[in-house]
Amino acid sequence: xxxxxxxxxxxxxxxxxxxxxxxxxxxxxxxxxxxxxxxxxxxxxxxxxxxxxxxxxxxxxxxxxxxxxxxxxxxxxxxxxxxxxxxxxxxxxxxxxxxxxxxxxxxxxxxxxxxxxxxxxxxxxxxxxxxxxxxxxxxxxxxxxxxxxxxxxxxxxxxxxxxxxxxxxxxxxxxxxxxxxxxxxxxxxxxxxxxxxxxxxxxxxxxxxxxxxxxxxxxxxxxxxxxxxxxxxxxxxxxxxxxxxxxxxxxxxxxxxxxxxxxxxxxxxxxxxxxxxxxxxxxxxxxxxxxxxxxxxxxxxxxxxxxxxxxxxxxxxxxxxxxxxxxxxxxxxxxxxxxxxxxxxxxxxxxxxxxxxxxxxxxxxxxxxxxxxxxxxxxxxxxxxxxxxxxxxxxxxxxxxxxxxxxxxxxxxxxxxxxx
Length: 420
What we know:
Elements: E1 2-3, E2 6-7, H1 13-21, E3 30-33, H2 41-55, E4 60-64, E5 66-70, E6 76-83, H3 91-105, E7 106-107, E8 113-119, E9 126-132, E10 141-142, E11 151-154, E12 157-160, H4 163-192, E13 208-215, H5 229-234, E14 246-248, E15 251-257, E16 263-270, E17 275-279, E18 294-296, H6 297-318, E19 325-332, E20 338-340, E21 363-364, E22 368-370, H7 377-393, E23 403-404, E24 407-408, H8 410-414
Parallel strand pairs: 3-4, 18-20
Antiparallel strand pairs: 1-2, 4-9, 5-6, 7-10, 8-9, 11-12, 13-17, 13-19, 14-15, 15-16, 16-17, 19-21, 19-22, 23-24
């Protein structure tokens, strides 16, 4: 939820002054309103139609307390006129009222939205801001409406969905997930069929960890990565230095090779803003039994959570590519390996029995969907827990042990205070 590239949580009164002075027009993601919606049924329906229209489209921000300029014929101009504020109303009460209407008035309920008052310097007045994300559960209907309950945004207005448009909206979200799955499959095929002169030719038969973080529905949209070169040199390095890398057709590639030329890890930033992180360093520190290959599930799980969080924050705050995002975890060429964990987690599991071998060549986990980027690692870890449980279960362990009583403890296990 952003306003002109700045998180809504950080917007202050001066930002609103600048917005009005710059004459920033309404758009599919920005709406000005002079007054708060009334507390009667008509006011509730008006509010819910506006909120659902944004949630069903690209998300956006509604600002109450800014008047809209009119033309000579008293028609809409979509331009702000004055920052008048909402003096004379109780901000806390109105915030609670609006939150309650939004929570109870949409079907399915809207999971992600923010209502917050933005006060002027002496707190004599305020603007009420409502931020909405593009929802993965769309389309959302106005539960109190009797006709045309589904809405979307177009330009600076909303419109009711026709049957054909409603059908498209239902299919659109599934198409995004399918597109992300196809993207991953294409990248795996590219690795395994690379010509001898390509770095990927060194990967054939290599057991590896592969993570994709992709902006759903925008894989064909290109952004300029060059201004972010220095930042991308420092991020998602698997705890070690990667070569500075090079530009390629896909975007920016940073990699690391062994002395024999074998590719051991790389990070590929794509022009859509997404990222692919690869490492073949997935073996445990102490093999189980003689000549038994392993997968270090402790560190693999931690990397998956930490890197997914970091990549989504870069997408959202640096590249300005908004949610939703898909996180896809893949383990390649792991048949016959057993899971290995750090010593503190081994008390109840030590086995040389082939019964606990991973039986699949590749583990392709379904996309984990995120409607917003999180700074709180617990939120990311909670969403990814089913996938990480399945990773450990592939080797006979009931649950991912990087959680304790449902709380993510991955950083504590390795002594990390921040992402390496």
